[in-house]
Amino acid sequence: MSSPEWAAARDPAAYDDRWAGVEHPHGEADLVASYGPRRVLDGGCGTGRVAIELARRGVAVLGVDADPAMVGVAREKAPELEWVLADLADLHRPERFDVVVLAGNVVPFAVRRAELVAACARHLAPGGRLVAGFQVQPGWPTPEEYDGWCAAAGLRPVERWATWERTPYRPGDGYAVTVAQRSTLSAPAGS
């Protein structure tokens, strides 16, 4: 999962520093935790901020990122958690998760976006949710494009907000958090 935009933003120290002064640094974890998950896959986990907070709240987490420096920092911060160095689009794990979270522009930074969404869907338990947030700006995916990738992967978008704190979304907003859900009837094809 590497793009020119990501290459310019991949310094782990700078990545962590940007969260130091944020008013709600755990908005992503708050939203994910509101669904009561037992198991969460934090895709594009970076240095582990969201996964570590969810684990602190008693959720079993798996952190996955394609950047070795980011995964290295996550492992240093929380060696008791499982961190996997992998491109999400190529991930094949036996576990199924109640939530897969893609926080912090994971989708636009991915090169193979439809494949990334399909891989995330493959790892959801029946009824599981894919929760993704990303900026909406020229040259990046639109919420409608993302919804199409979700539908192709067997997921149904059920909620959308402009922030992780559930501010209502309006077309033209600069950020979208979308929750797409797997059917409660069966696991995804190919799982």
Automatic annotation (TrEMBL):
Residues 40-128 form the Methyltransferase domain. Gene3D superfamilies: Vaccinia Virus protein VP39 (3.40.50.150). The keyword Nucleus does not apply. SUPFAM superfamilies: S-adenosyl-L-methionine-dependent methyltransferases. GO terms for molecular function: methyltransferase activity. GO terms for biological process: methylation. Keywords: Methyltransferase, S-adenosyl-L-methionine, Transferase. This is Methyltransferase domain-containing protein. It comes from uncultured Pseudonocardia sp.
